[in-house]
Amino acid sequence: MSLDEFRKKFKLVVTSGPTREFIDTIRFLSNPSTGRMGYYIAHAGVNLGYDVTYIHGPVPYKFRAVHDAQNVEVISTIDMMNTVLHRIEENTILIMAAAPADYRPEKKFDHKLKKKENPEIKFIPNPDILMSVNEKIKKENISNVILIGFAAEIENAHEYAVSKLIRKDLDMIFLNDLSQPNSGFGVETNELTVIHRDESFEKWSTDSKEKLGYRILHEIEKWLA
Ligand code: CTP
Asked: Where are the domains of the chain?
């Protein structure tokens, strides 16, 4: 298949940013993801001619809308999961660059908690979005869905990334080594290692997230087009 045909055939769905799990009317559990990496992947996707849906959690203003993409804002991990599942159909590339919260409070208080209430908050696990996409693909027998993940790790980075690639049945995973100063949440650059389904890998030199947006898509095209 030519690159042009591949870009016309596949729809691109990119997620980015954190999710929020509210504890009471104003407080939440989240993480410092800004959505920059996912934003630049979606941006590169539009420029390469893909039909792009950009699904983001609460991110800074400049990463909220990709020009000429369908932009959807979500809040919680379950919102993000439902929005992603809704868009999974034949010929879809899903790139999960988001950092969804893995836990949510068992119960949300419907008033602003007061100090003296000193509540015990029990957290319960959120569903895994990539796993639920896998379930949908199998149950509904949907073909040609390419799944790409990210792994942000500090210790045993490579080993954990490979185990996520296998467990989540991904075509490719991009390892973001958080122990490196030029990598991770909130910074302009990333130092990525790409790991393929056959576990072959390549460590890329540090680059801006803007340039990496294109490089990531070219890598997917090189291996899967
Ligand atoms: N991810 C997902 N659903 C979640 C959490 C993560 O689909 N509830 C996706 C992320 O977008 C990323 C990949 O799974 O592409 C790996 O995310 P990461 O947070 O590193 O992995 P976890 O599965 O949460 O594993 P752990 O917390 O054990 O590191």
From this structure: 3-104+123-224
Classify 3-104+123-224 by CATH class: alpha beta
Pocket test for ligand 1, best of 16, 87, 102 (most atoms within 8 A of CB): 102
CA distances from 63 to 39, 41, 54, 138 (A): 6, 11, 10, 33
Q: Is 130 in the pocket of ligand 1 (CB under 6 A)?
A: yes
Tell me the per-residue pLDDT of 83-103, one tens digit each, with 9 for 90 and over: 999 999 999 999 999 999 999
- What would the two tokens of residue 134 be? 């896998």
Q: Which atom of ligand 1 is nearest to the CA of 99?
A: 11
- 182 has catalytic annotation: no
- d(C-alpha 142, C-alpha 68), whole Å: 27
Q: Residue 82's closest CA among 92, 90, 70, 74? A: 74
